[in-house]
Design brief:
The complex is a heterodimer of chains A (246) and B (407). With 246 residues, chain A is an alpha/beta fold. Helix content of chain A is 32%, strand content 29%. In chain A, a hairpin with a 2-residue loop joins strand 2 and strand 3. In chain A, helix 3 crosses helix 4. The relative contact order of chain B is 0.19. In chain B, a hairpin with a 5-residue loop joins strand 7 (167-173) and strand 8. Classes of the chains: A alpha/beta (246), B alpha+beta (407).
Chain lengths: 246, 407
């Protein structure tokens, strides 16, 4: 990789101008019967606003667990997580849901679009989960705007089963961005796609990151896609091996 | 959007949804038909009691109701008062007709047999209008032209082995205790439908009954109304009119006399409740099964919905809403099917044996009662909603990360 690399240790947080994600000594343990698996070991990490960060590492290294914790989908066993100034462990289940609805966008490997809703309705759905949903006309306008931005406005009335994988992921990205979140998390967003479509999805994410200043954190196995990231967090056995920026 | 989502979700698996809707609509239709047959029987018994024996409202001299068994002739309505009552009734709404009655007991003698009877002195010309449920099975009805012509219940005639046209002797006490006897001709034999009534009752023109009892009075004025449903309203009007005219009268309504009807309503009402519970259980099990299967199939989707910000309460509401949609659609189909099938059954009719204590078989129909239709629909909807709560709760308690990993 023709990149400038600089290893940043746990103290690198001080270098980040405005941190939207802050993890301090986060540990996550899973129990499967009598077995005990430490998925994350005292992870500390700061991610600044507007970063386009890739989390890489082999299977079982803790990438998904890390994204789940940042996305407030799960709770750590110890340590603290601060998302956009809010200490996650102090929040109730309802407040966490609200935090996800207002500040976090999620993109899944398998898209997870609601099959009985059209693309337009899928994209509109998160707006209805906000504490103050916009009125119907505004919602319609917002949906059309984001679909145009992502080049899938012609698919607005299609159901997910009528779309290709790339179109589905574009719709999922539109759904993640419709609420104008501070952070977008994408767990293996390209692994269900062929390499060309995967690259185009990553390019789209990158351009949205540049245009909107949204923080993108995504996990991937694909080293070609890692090149697009302006920061790479390498994980292994539940620990951050290194955090590289260029 | 939530309603749209619920409607679309329940039709994802059309076969399962069809079976669930069939269970709900079958339950709802069953309640309508079963309830309709039972209400038809209630109506028959009610009208039988009103138009065969009691009328809608009974007016008595004050004190009669409390003391008539010990002192049957101490609280009587004089002929003059009877005329005033008829005048009063003439101006009241809902009142169609009124007649005087005099009840007494005695012995009837024929062919060496003496059988006790319950005598009804009635206005001969009006009796057929007051007893539309009573059928003459032999001979003819009462006539004012034949004061000594009586009609007997089928059972009473059988006990005496007497036929229409035969003569018999009535023996009784007058109101002051003297003995009196008179020969009468049996004009006809009737069947009132209630065995107890048919076994004991003899009807005789009122004037002849008064003569036999040496009275110029009657015990009660029986009032027929335009509709049975107006009974309580009419009673209120009557009480008001009696108070305004300062008459010393009291009154009862048909339910206070129709004990058999009340017992049947109470018993079949309980049976109807049991059927409601059974149907509710069927609906609940169907919905639980359907929604639980649906949750298994949609686990990852539920995880995704919660991941993008839906609180657990919203997921719970989503499945309860699906239960509600199931209930409403199934209930509506059930209502249409229930009314349709009920109408066909009513058109064809179901031959039924005589009800307990009755002597007549009947052709059952299905009364479409709005209250029964509404309550059946309500049971379908409420059972569906109730049944959806447990699966909905389970769905809302899923751990997001586990749900997202679910395969």
């Amino acid at each position: 990789m023709r990149i400038l690399m600089r290893e940043i240790d746990d103290r690198q947080s001080a270098l980040v101008a405005e941190s939207v994600v802050s993890l301090r000594g986060v540990t996550k343990i899973f129990h499967a019967g009598k077995a005990r698996v430490v998925a994350l070991k005292k992870i500390s990490l700061e991610i600044g606003a507007g970063e386009f960060a890739a989390v890489v590492g082999p299977s079982g290294s803790g990438k998904t667990t890390l994204l789940n914790l940042i996305g407030c989908l799960d709770q750590p066993d110890s340590g603290s997580i601060v998302i956009d100034g809010l200490e996650v462990e102090r929040l109730s289940s309802r407040a966490l849901a609200s935090l996800r609805a207002e500040k976090i966008g999620l993109i899944f490997q398998n898209f997870n679009l609601i099959p009985v809703l059209s693309v337009g309705e899928n994209v509109e759905y998160p707006l209805l989960l906000r504490s103050r949903p916009p009125d119907k006309g505004k919602r319609r306008w917002m949906v059309e705007e984001i679909l145009v931005e992502l080049g899938i406005e012609s698919l607005i009335d299609r159901r997910p089963n009528e779309l290709s994988g790339g179109q589905c992921q574009r719709a999922a990205i539109a759904r993640a961005l419709i609420t104008r979140p501070r952070i977008v998390l994408a767990d293996e967003p390209t692994s269900s796609l062929d390499s060309r479509t995967g690259a185009s999805i990553l390019e789209l994410m990158k351009s949205l990151n540049r245009q909107r200043g949204v923080t993108f954190i995504f996990s991937t196995h694909d080293l070609k896609l890692v090149e697009m990231a302006d920061r790479v967090i390498e994980m292994c056995d539940g620990e951050i091996q290194g955090s590289l920026s260029w | 959007m939530q309603l749209k989502l619920a409607c679309r979700n329940i039709f994802r698996n059309r076969r399962r949804t069809t079976l669930t809707l069939l269970a709900i609509s079958f339950g709802c239709a069953s309640l309508i038909i079963n309830g309709g047959i039972i209400y038809f029987i209630f109506r028959g018994l009610r009208e039988d009691a009103i138009h065969g024996r009691y009328g809608h409202v009974q007016i008595y001299k004050r004190g009669y109701i409390e003391k008539h068994q010990a002192q049957p002739f101490d609280h009587m309505i004089s002929n003059a008062e009877f005329e005033e009552i008829k005048l009063m009734l003439g101006g009241l709404s809902h009142v169609e007709e009124a007649t005087g009655r005099l009840e007494f007991a005695g012995l009837m003698s024929y062919g060496g047999k003496n059988v006790s009877f319950l005598g009804y002195g009635v206005e001969a010309d009006k009796d057929t209008r007051f007893n539309t449920m009573l059928s003459i099975v032999e001979g003819e009805g009462l006539s004012a032209q034949e004061p000594r012509g009586v009609i007997l219940g089928k059972g009473l005639a059988a006990r005496l082995q007497i036929r229409a046209g035969d003569f018999a002797t009535l023996l009784m006490n007058t109101h002051d205790g003297d003995y009196n006897a008179v020969d009468v001709r049996v004009r006809g034999i009737f069947e009132g439908g209630l065995k107890e009534f048919d076994d004991w009752v003899m009807k005789i023109p009122l004037e002849k009954a008064q003569e036999l009892l040496a009275l110029n009075e009657i015990q009660s004025v029986v009032v027929l109304l335009d509709k049975t449903e107006n009974t309580e309203a009419a009673k209120e009007l009557l009480l008001d009119a009696v108070a305004r005219r300062n008459l010393d009268l009291e009154m009862t309504t048909w339910p206070e006399h129709a004990l058999f009807y009340n017992q049947v309503v109470s018993m079949f009402g309980k049976e109807l409740d049991v059927v409601k519970v059974i149907i509710s259980i069927i609906v609940i099990l169907s919905i639980i099964n359907s929604l639980t299967m649906s949750i298994y199939e949609r686990t990852r989707e539920i995880g995704a919905i919660m991941a993008i910000g839906a609180p657990r309460s919203k997921v719970l509401r989503m499945f309860v809403l699906e239960g509600l949609v199931f209930g409403v659609i199934g209930g509506l189909i059930g209502v249409v099917a229930g009314i349709g099938i009920g109408s066909v059954i009513s058109y064809i009719g179901i031959p039924m044996p005589p009800p307990p204590a009755s002597t007549r078989p009947f052709i059952a129909q299905v009364d479409i009662i709005p209250a029964v239709v509404f309550s059946s629909f309500l049971i379908a909807v409420s059972s569906s909603v109730l049944a959806s709560i447990y699966p909905a709760y389970r769905a809302s308690r899923l751990r997001i990360v586990d749900a997202l990993r679910y395969v």
